[in-house]
Amino acid sequence: MSNTPVPSAKAAQGVKRPKRSLRRNILGWGLSLLAVLLLGVIVFSFMPSPIEPVKWSAPKAPSFQESGPWQQNNKLSSAQLVTDAPQSPEFITFDKEGQLYTGDSDGKIYKVPFGADGNPQKAQLFADTKGTPNGLKFDANGNLIVADIKKGLLSITPSGSIEVLANQVDGKPIYLANELDIAKDGSIYFSDTSNYGRVTFKEIAENKPHGRLLKYDPTTKQTTVLLEGLYFANGIALSADEDFVLIAESYHYQLTRYWLKGSKKGTSDIFADNLAGFPDNITRDEQGHFWVGIFTTRIPFVDQMHSNPWLANSMAKLPESLLSGASAPVKHGLAVELSPQGELIGSWHDPEGTLYGVTTAIKHNGYLYIGTAPGGSLGLHRVLLTK
């Protein structure tokens, strides 16, 4: 016989009361949380947006599944690592001896020599701009000209001494010097990406042009504005005859041509449009063809946002830290080749995304060298070109 006392009816009833009380508390907490959430939605809805977006119906992106120059392949999938000393080698250039130079987002610029067998040797630190060097090109005197997004247009001597060529134009700052090319007469054409002064999702959502094309004259040491109203001005490349200069407008998936000679001098038009992603840097090969790195293939949500100002307004209200994923590069490596007339010759893919976030594609000694930017794959790679 158990010695456990038998509870009375009153005691049994008393055991149930705490359960009903707990249910009431949970219900009360739930209603309070719902009220807070509803209040937050109401406040968020009436909160003014930091932008006034412009509606734009982006053209339908080319299909990688259909036959043609955009058809998906794996030409970039066999990429060989050249060096991982720079984590994000935005742009790539070569000196007269064939040594490779590239920068990293931490300000360091590296030199990569090659052995007699053509294989890359250990990367060497060449200079440190203390900024973010993007565009790189050697001038006729052997100085490395650099477009640094934090410092402006720079010149670096072979010994590593750094001089600021330009950080202002028309009495205003150069906000975000990005990429460049150098003409035979020494003139430097470079992009000032955005007067936002930094890469921000708000600019994508706003869909307004804040970039421009600049020219630096080494004789007068003056910088002038050639073209304004560009949608995230990015890569730069002169034509073989230097009758025009190309500039990538990343946020509108197009390349714009600015005429330097002839009857169209001083005017601009569209060289290539409806690219399958955000064009970054442009290089020209010995045939006069242009190679364009596509940082990311098209992001359907971004195109949808462009056609819906309410959605763009709402997205711009969110903290920037929550938006980084919305514009992160798709893990699909892509570079394209265009004719001197702007016709798409072919596309190079890594659909598996081992190599992605492509900024630069440049031909050199039988290889296609590939650069990337923060958010993409790490290190500098190359792919053997087939004849």
Automatic annotation (TrEMBL):
Record domain Strictosidine synthase conserved region: where: 178-262
Keywords, ordered alphabetically: Glycoprotein, Membrane, Phosphoprotein, Transmembrane, Transmembrane helix
Transmembrane segments: 26-47
UniProt cross-references to Gene3D superfamilies, sorted A to Z: TolB, C-terminal domain
Signal sequence residues: none
Annotated family: Belongs to the strictosidine synthase family.
Protein known as: SMP-30/gluconolactonase/LRE family protein
